[in-house]
Amino acid sequence: MKWTIHELIKRSKTDTDLDFTLDLNGYITEEIDDLEKxxxxxxxxFYDFIKEExxxxxxxxxxxxxxxxxxxxxxxxxVDLDFNTHLNFSTTPVDDDTHLIxxxxxxxxxxxxxxxxxxxxxxxxxxxxxxxYKEDIHLMDEEELTxxxxxxxxxxx
Length: 157
Known about the structure:
This protein is an alpha+beta fold. It has one domain (2-135). 23% of the residues lie in helices and 38% in strands. It contains five helices and eight strands; from the N terminus they run E-H-E-E-E-E-E-E-E-H-H-H-H. It has helices spanning 5-11, 109-119, 127-132, 142-148, 152-156; strands at residues 2-4, 17-22, 35-38, 41-50, 55-69, 76-90, 98-100, 105-107. Strands 2, 3, 4, 5, 6 and 7 form a six-stranded mixed sheet that branches. The mean pLDDT is 88.
């Protein structure tokens, strides 16, 4: 969603409610190897404009479904996300939590996508993969540990 600064300032006097949907699949790159798809993302909330600081504060609730790859079986797993976030924008530097507005528009899509990446789990597991998962643990005795150590020869000298 994209707004001009002037549009947001004018609208802040009458209607600050936000309710829109986004398709964020275009932001998924090859570097994000465990995320396959994002469903249509629902955003609700409001914003405030603080004139003295020239600051826009967005208070948003984000709901979406991620299609991720299972960390064990690589099957697709659906992960529901529903979280609240705050995004701050200003034309002048304020602090590390405030995004700098370049030009006269605020395009919020990329910031919402980055918030989703922060909220997504590091790993997703398919329930069947966990049921069939078995670790093969091999315990080494003291002799095996010292013989396989690269420092064993140094210790003997």
